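User:
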Amino acid sequence: MIKQILPAILLTLLLTVLLGLAYPLAMTGLAGTLFPRQAHGSLIEKNGQMVGSALIGQSFETPEYFHSRPSATTGADPADSTKTVPSPYNAANSMGSNASPSSKAYIESTQALVDQIKAENPDARGPVPVDLVTASGSGLDPHISPAAAEYQTPRVAKARHIPEGDLRALVAAHTEGRVFGILGESRVNVLKLNLALDERRPLAK
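Assistant: Predicted structure:
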């Protein structure tokens, strides 16, 4: 019996060391050497200070900025650790809402978002883009569609006192195409766009 068990134990230990220790360390070192920025979180700096990551969304609520899509992530309630509260773009708890499209509560909350987006963008044309009222599966998506950026353009242009045509050109310059030309859809990184907007037309202090 020992002859059968001993090889199994040794093989388990060997694979644990190789696949649980050596391989992850080797891949981490290789990634850090070949892709240092991505391996360290694709962090974005402004004036020497880290302002976010190109991979994780942020909340923007004032009219002078393009707004991100909703996030359904939650976090621990500070008043009661056994409960959770909404915590948008919480990277420690990536998740979607998991709500069914037929859920009454989901329908009502989505309609409330539609009404809110319309109120915030009174000069917008066309229907509200779906990604402005629905969260991504991860809850961390840093991108919006070009249509979502276009929908917000009149509001941001008015708040920044910048011609809409100039703002559309800025959006176009920060629109990323499909990966390898075939994967995914065109998208706009909200944080990068807003940072470029601050550089182009700084807010009055």
